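dumping the sequnces here before i forget
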Amino acid sequence: MRHFLTTLDYSRDELQGLLDVAARMKAGRHDKTLEGKSIALLFFNPSLRTRTSFELGAHQLGMKAIVLEPGKGAWPIEFEDGGVMDGEPEEHVREVARVLSRYVDAIAVRAFPKFQRWEDDREDKVIRAFAAHATVPVINMETITHPCQELALMLTLQEKLGRTDGKKLLLTWTYHPKPLNTAVANSALIIAAKFGFEVTLLCPTPEYVLDRRYMDAAEEMAQAAGQRITVTHDVEAGYRGAAVVYAKSWGALPYFGRWAEEKPIREAHRHFMVDRQKMELTSGGLFSHCLPVRRNVKVTDEVLDSPQAIHIDEAENRIHVQKALMEALLAGASAGADRAK
Amino acid sequence: MRHFLTTLDYSRDELQGLLDVAARMKAGRHDKTLEGKSIALLFFNPSLRTRTSFELGAHQLGMKAIVLEPGKGAWPIEFEDGGVMDGEPEEHVREVARVLSRYVDAIAVRAFPKFQRWEDDREDKVIRAFAAHATVPVINMETITHPCQELALMLTLQEKLGRTDGKKLLLTWTYHPKPLNTAVANSALIIAAKFGFEVTLLCPTPEYVLDRRYMDAAEEMAQAAGQRITVTHDVEAGYRGAAVVYAKSWGALPYFGRWAEEKPIREAHRHFMVDRQKMELTSGGLFSHCLPVRRNVKVTDEVLDSPQAIHIDEAENRIHVQKALMEALLAGASAGADRAK
Amino acid sequence: MRHFLTTLDYSRDELQGLLDVAARMKAGRHDKTLEGKSIALLFFNPSLRTRTSFELGAHQLGMKAIVLEPGKGAWPIEFEDGGVMDGEPEEHVREVARVLSRYVDAIAVRAFPKFQRWEDDREDKVIRAFAAHATVPVINMETITHPCQELALMLTLQEKLGRTDGKKLLLTWTYHPKPLNTAVANSALIIAAKFGFEVTLLCPTPEYVLDRRYMDAAEEMAQAAGQRITVTHDVEAGYRGAAVVYAKSWGALPYFGRWAEEKPIREAHRHFMVDRQKMELTSGGLFSHCLPVRRNVKVTDEVLDSPQAIHIDEAENRIHVQKALMEALLAGASAGADRAK
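..and the predicted 3d for all of it:
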C-alpha cells in the first residue's frame, strides 16, 4: 500500500507512468476499473475543481465518493497525540482514520496551513496523521504541497510542449490582497525541476523564497537533470526567454502570524501582476495558474483570455490525472483490509 | 446547444413536448438515457425540492450530479467583467463556467436576487454570465424566474384539468414576514398566459405589480391565445370563478433596498392569506403553491390539507419535468466539447 | 410499511434476524438488492460515521442517497401543528415529509434534542412528525435513542462473545466538558437488556439515571430474560466482573436548560474516565464506545489502543447493520406509493 502525499516520494518515471495513463484516459472512454470501490474526500477548506474532479472522476471509474467537511457537517478532529481532549475537537484522527479505512478504499484530504507559525505548518501534521493511522491509501488534495495539481500541470505542459527538458519555466509570485498558501508554489517548483525544466523563481524579496525543503529538493533534481534553479527579484530577467510562465501568490514564510508586517512589502509589489508587456519578454511563452485566480490582480484579463493561457486545460486535466492516480493506488487494495489484524 | 434560462425562449409547442415526455417518464420506469453524463448543481441559496429532484432525477437518467455551494464549500465568484478583483470573490465566472464545462455536460444554477436594487437584479447577471461563458447547456434552478417550477405547475394542472385554455387562474400575492423573490410570481404569470389561461393577478397595491418585462410578455401571449391579463386589488373579484388559485408572496419592486418603507403596506395586507372562505368564491378551484409555504401565514391549514390542494403533486412533478428537460438538452451534447476550439 | 424509530418496537427475534443478515452481508459481496431505490438522509446535526455508512451502504445496495441539511443547505422546518408560522421555519414537516415521500423510498433523520427541557425533548417530536406524515419508512439516525448504533453494538458483541445472555455489561457515564445527548445511553441500556445481558448502569449521582421510559423498558426486558438492571454510583462495584464496558457521557435530565447548575457535579466526576486500572477490575472485559470519543477525557489512550477496545469494529458494523435494515424495510416499498390515494 502506498500513499500520495508529495511527489518527492515518487520517481520521475513513476509520475510519467501516471501521466501516460491519464493521457490515455483523456483520449478514450470511461472504464469502470474500480467498480465497487469507494473514497472519502475530506475537505477542511473550500474547493471547486478538486471536489468536482475527484467526485466525478471516482464516479467515472465506478467508485463512490463520500464528501465530508470536518468542523461543518462532520465533527472537528484532533491531530496531536497524547493530549487531554477538552477543547473543541470531538474525536481524534486515530479513530477517524481507522473507521474510514473500514468503510472506504482511499482517503483524500485537503488541509491548508493554519498560517500562524510556518515551523508548525511545515510539518504537515494533518495529512501525515491520516497516513500514519489509515490502513488504506491517503491522497493529498492540497496541504503544504498540491501534488495532484503538479500532475495536471505536467500533463498540460507535455500536451503543449512535448518534451520539457531544458526549457525555461518562470514561477512568478503575484500580488493578492491576502497572504496565501505556498503549496502550489512549492509544487510547481519541485515538479518543474523533476521534469527537467530550467526553473526561475521570481519573487519580491528574499523573504518570499520558498521553504528550504523544497528549494533544496528542486536544486538536487535540477542538478541531476543537468539544469539549475535561479532565484531573482528582477522582473525582466525572470520573464526573458521563458517557455512557461506559472503565476501564484503566497505569503512570505518569515511573516507567518505577523501578517500586518508583511503587508507593506506585498502592497509595494502589485506590479508583479502578469500582463501583456511582461509576456512579450518571453519566447512566445505559455501562461498558466492553478485557479482560483483574481483577474486584474494576479493576471490581466488580456493574458487570461489570450491563446497562450492554458489554465483551463490544466484545470480539466485534474480529472484525468486523478483518475490515473486512483487507479494506480487502488487497483489491488480494499476497505476493511485491516480487520484481520 | 441550447440553454434553459426562461420559458420566454421556448414556444408553447416546445414546452408541451417536454410535458408530454415528463408524463411518460412519470408513468413508466427509469430509462438511463443519459448514462455517463453529468451535471453540476450550483446553489447560491438554500434548496430542498430542487436539490433532491435534480440530484435524484439525474441519477435516474444514469447521470452523476455534483452539488456545489459557492461561498460555502466552494470559492466565492465574481460576475462583473473587467474589474480589479480585490474584493471577496476569489475567481471569475469566466473561469468557473469554462472549467465546469470541461468536467460536466450541463450546469444548473440557483441564484436569488440581491434585493438591493431591482434595476440590477432584473438583469439576471449570474445565470446570464454562466450562459455566456459555459460551453454546455445552462439550466435555471431559480433566479428571477423559476422555469422548472413552471413546467411542474403546468404538468400538474394538465393532469387535473386537462386542457387549460380559457380557464381562470388567480395568481394571488400573500403575506410573508420577509420580502421574497418575485421569481415564482413572474413564472406563474408567463406560463399561465402561454398555456391559454385567463390570468388574474391579485395584489395589495399597484406597487406589487410585477416587472413590465413579464407583464408585457404575459399580455402578448394572452392576446395571442385570445385571453387577457387582469390586475386587481379586490380580493373577492380575484377569487370569483377561479379554476386555479396559485399563491405566492413577493416584495414590491419599488421598495427593493428600502424594505422598512414597504413593511407597513405588507403588514396591512395579512388578510390576503388563502383560506376556506376565499376558496369558496372559486368554481371548486384547485389550490397550489411552489413551496416552501408558511402555514397559517400564506395559507391556512384547512386549505393546505384539503383535497383541492395540489401542491404536493406539483412538487413531485419537479422531478419528472426536470428529467424530460435534461434529456432534451443533453441527448446530443458532451463535456469538453470546446476543447478543440 | 414499518418505521425504525426505536428498537422498543421490534422483538429480539426480529432484531436478531437483522443481525444475521448483516453478518452475511459483512462476510460476502455487495448485492444490489435495492437497485433503483433511494433514501433521503436529513441531518439536523453533524455526522461522520452515520453519513458515510448510510450514504455508502445505500450505494452498495444499488440505491441513491440524497444528503440534506435543513437550516443550512435546505430550508428550516416547523414541527408543531396548527401554529402561525411567522418565525424562522419556512416550511412545515407536513409538506417536507409528503414531498420527500414522492421522491424517495425512505427518509432517515438525525435530530438531537434541544437541551432546554427534557419534558419536551423526550417526546421526540421531529422524527415522530416525519413518521406521522411520511408515506415511506422513516429511519432514526439518532434522536433521543440511536437504534442503528444498538444494532452495530450487538453485532460486534456477538462477534466477540458469541451468546450474550447472562454476561455482565457495564454502561458507565464518563466526563465530557459539555452536557451530551442521552440517546446512546438509552440505547445501550435497552438493547443490552433485550439481548439478555445483566446490565449495570454506573453514574455519578441518582440525577444521572436515565429516563423512566428506558429504565422501565430495560427492567421489563431484563426480567423476561431472567436478568436484572443494577444502578450504582460505586465505580469498583460497577466494573467488577464486567464482560463489556460501554462508555458514554450525557447530561443529567433534571438539569436540562440549567447547565450551569449541573457543571460542578459533572466536574467533580472527572475520575469516571475509563482507564487501565478500572479495566483490570473486569473479567478481561471488552471496551467500546459509539464515537466520537475524546481521548484522555472519556477514556485513556491506553484503553482505546488496547486489544480489548472494539470501538472501531462497532463503527464498521454500522454499515452492515444499516444495509440489512434498509433491505428489510424497503424490499417491497416504493416512492410515490401514496399518489393513488
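Chain B has two domains: 7-144+318-330, 149-309.
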